[in-house]
Design a protein that fits this description.
2 copies of one chain form a homodimer.
Chain A lengths: L7 E5 L2 H13 L5 E5 L5 E3 L2 E3 L1 H10 L17 H8 L10 H15 L4 H11 L5 E4 L5 E7 L19 E4 H7 L6 E8 L9 H7 L2 E4 L4 H10 L3 H7 L4 E4 L2 E2 L2 E2 L4 H7 L6 H8 L5 E5 L6 H6 L3 E5 L6 H12 L2
Parallel strand pairs in A: 1-2, 1-9, 2-5, 9-10, 10-13, 13-14
Antiparallel strand pairs in A: 3-4, 6-7, 6-8, 11-12
Helix pairs in contact in A: 1-2, 1-13, 4-5, 7-9
C-alpha cells in the first residue's frame, strides 16, 4: 500500500491490539502512532468509570500489564477487592489496588468536566507514552450482548414450556461475569445518533499513511469502533490504505471468544469469514502462515491477502508484524 | 435523668462520638444503642460517596480504626493513593486500599437505588456491629465553611487594597485539605427544605431513655445533625432526657478545631460556651473534672451540670463515661 507510512491509525480493541501497538511503537516513531480504541466495553461500577480496552492498551504499551493474566497491572495487590468481598460487594470484575487509581483518576477528571479523551491523554502521559491513545468517542457507547438463557433458569421461565426469554446484558457481564461461556444470539451497540468520534479520530483515519484494523474481535471490539457515526464511512474512504490483521488463526481466536461468536452470529470462523466482514472497509487482510491455504479464498472476497507470522509471542515478533503491516 | 435507660440515642460526629459509642456498647446491650451520625462531612470524590463520620463510628466500634491516625483502618495499605499520586490526582483526602472498599460498596449500593441508611446498615452488619448506625438523613446534607482568604492570595485580590473575598469551601476542603488551620467566619448547612431524617432517627430520639449529645464539635458535627428538619425540635421535646458531653476540656478541644472555631464564631471556648449552645436542647451537661470550677456557670445557663472524668483514654474509660451519662 505504502512504502512506510509517516502516520498510522490503529483501530483497536484490547489484548491483540495492545500487542500490535507494542510492535508499532518499535517499528516507527511512537508519536506517529494513533490508537483509536473501543469503549463499548466500558462499565460504570462502584461509581467508577472503567475503560478496560483503553487501560489494556496503555498498560501493555507501558510494559506494565500483568503478563500472566493479560489484564491489569503487574505486581498488583488486591486489598480493596478482599475487603469488598467481605461486604458482599460486586467482585466479579476484579480491580487491583493500583489499577483502581486509574479509575479514580479518570472518574474524577470526568466529574470535573474533562472528556474521556482528555482523561485518557493524561493517563497515557503519566505512563510516559508517546503514542496517541484516543477513545473512539467521548460520547456514550455500550456494547450489549444477547445471550441464551442459562439452563438452570428454564425452571423459572415464564413460558408454559419452561423457556425463559433471552437475556441482553452488558459486554462485561457477558465477557467477565459469564466468562464468555454462553452462546450469543445478538450484539448491539448503544450509541446516540448524535454521538461523535472523539477529537482527532477522523483526522487520524483520513490522514494516516496506513489505517490498521488490529487483530481484535471483529464483532465486539472493532464493531463498536465502526458503529460510532462517521467512523465506518471514513475507514471505507481509505479502503486502499486499510490493512486488517486477522484475529482468527487456524480457525481459532488466539484469545477470547471471537471464533465461537463469529459462528454463533452466522459468520465463518476463519480468515475467510473475517475477510467477508472487512472486505468493504479494508483493501488488505494479513493472515497467518497457518492459513496460507485460504489465501485464495480471502482474495476472492476482493481483498489483497498477505501471509506472514502473526503470532506476537514477544515485542520483537510484534515489531516484525507491525513492520510487515506498514509495508504491505 | 433515668435509672438506666433501656434505649439510648446518641447524636454523633466522628472521633469523640465514636469513642463514647465504644463505651456505650460496653455499658448496655449494643442493640439498644442507636447512633445518629453527621453526614455534613460527606464528600463525593473520584465518583465515590465518602461518609467519614459514619466510617469513623463503624471502624471505631468494630475496633478496626487505626489507633495512631484516629481515622481509617489499621494495617492499611496505600497502593491506590501512591498510584493516584503518579497521575497527579486528588490525594489530599487519603483513602487506604481497604477503606476504599467501603466507599466502593456504598457508592454501588446507592447507584443501585439503596438509601445511605441501608448501605450503612449493611456495612455495620459486615463489621458484625450490633448497635444501630443511622445517618441523620438519607437526603443531601453538606456543611459549608467560610474561611478567611489565605495571606498569599491577597496579591490576587479583586479589591484595590489587595483583599480577596472570603472563600466558602466544603467541610473536608477546610478540615483535611487546609488542615483546619485557617480562621472560620461562617458555617452553613446545605440541606433541602424537604430533607427528612432517615428512617428511625426521630423514633430513636422520641423513645430513647436517654438522648446523648456526644462530645463532638458542637458547630460542625452536632450542628448538621440538628439542621435536618425535625431533629432539633425532637431533641428539644426530650430536653429533660438529653445529656450532652462537653467536647471542650480546660478550654481546649481534645481533638480538632472546636475551641478555635467556637471563638472565631463568637462563642466562649469553654464548657460555659458549650452550655449556652446546648441549654435550649439538653437538660444536663457533663463536664470534665478539669472544669469543676465552672460548674456553677454551667448551671446558670439552666442546665444541670455533672462533673466527671470525660477523657476516654481507653475502652474502659469510655465505658465508665457512658455509664455515668446513662445514670446522671
Amino acid at each position: 500500500v505504502t512504502g512506510g507510512a509517516s502516520h498510522v491509525a490503529v483501530l483497536a480493541g484490547g489484548v491483540g491490539a495492545a500487542r500490535l501497538l507494542t510492535g508499532m511503537v518499535r517499528a516507527m516513531p511512537p508519536e506517529a502512532v494513533t490508537a483509536i480504541v473501543n469503549v463499548g466495553d466500558d462499565i460504570e461500577l462502584h461509581g467508577l468509570h472503567i475503560s478496560p480496552d483503553l487501560d489494556t492498551v496503555v498498560y501493555t504499551v507501558a510494559e506494565a500489564i500483568d503478563p500472566e493474566r493479560g489484564w491489569g497491572l503487574r505486581d498488583e495487590t488486591w486489598q480493596a477487592m478482599a475487603s469488598l468481598e467481605r461486604y458482599g460487594g460486586t467482585t466479579w470484575f476484579r480491580l487491583g489496588d493500583q489499577d483502581l487509581a486509574t479509575h479514580l483518576f479518570r472518574t474524577q477528571r470526568m466529574a470535573d468536566g474533562a472528556p474521556l479523551s482528555t482523561a485518557t491523554a493524561e493517563i497515557a502521559a503519566a505512563w510516559k507514552l508517546a503514542l496517541r491513545v484516543l477513545p473512539v468517542t467521548d460520547d456514550r457507547l455500550r456494547t450489549r450482548v444477547t445471550i441464551a438463557p442459562e439452563p438452570h433458569s428454564a425452571a423459572n421461565g415464564s413460558g408454559p414450556g419452561g423457556f425463559s426469554a433471552p437475556d441482553e446484558v452488558s459486554f462485561q457481564e457477558y465477557f467477565v461475569h459469564r466468562q464468555h461461556s454462553v452462546p450469543v444470539s445478538a450484539v448491539r451497540f448503544e450509541c446516540d445518533v448524535d454521538a461523535r468520534p472523539a477529537p482527532g479520530v477522523l483526522e487520524a483515519i483520513m490522514t494516516a499513511g496506513v489505517v490498521v484494523i488490529a487483530p481484535s474481535n471483529p464483532i465486539v471490539s472493532i464493531g463498536p469502533v465502526l458503529a460510532v457515526p462517521g467512523v465506518r464511512n471514513a475507514v471505507r474512504q481509505r479502503r486502499e490504505s486499510v490493512v486488517a490483521v486477522s484475529p482468527i488463526v487456524g480457525g481459532k481466536a488466539l484469545k477470547g471468544p471471537a471464533d465461537r461468536m463469529l459462528r454463533e452470529l452466522g459468520h465463518e470462523p476463519s480468515v475467510v469469514g473475517v475477510a467477508r466482514l472487512y472486505a468493504p472497509l479494508a483493501g488488505t487482510l494479513v493472515i497467518d502462515e497457518a492459513d496460507r491455504a485460504l489465501a485464495g479464498d480471502v482474495e476472492a472476497t476482493g481483498m489483497h491477502c498477505v501471509v506472514t507470522d502473526t503470532i506476537m509471542r514477544d515485542a520483537e515478533a510484534a515489531k516484525a508484524l507491525a513492520h510487515h503491516v506498514l509495508h504491505v
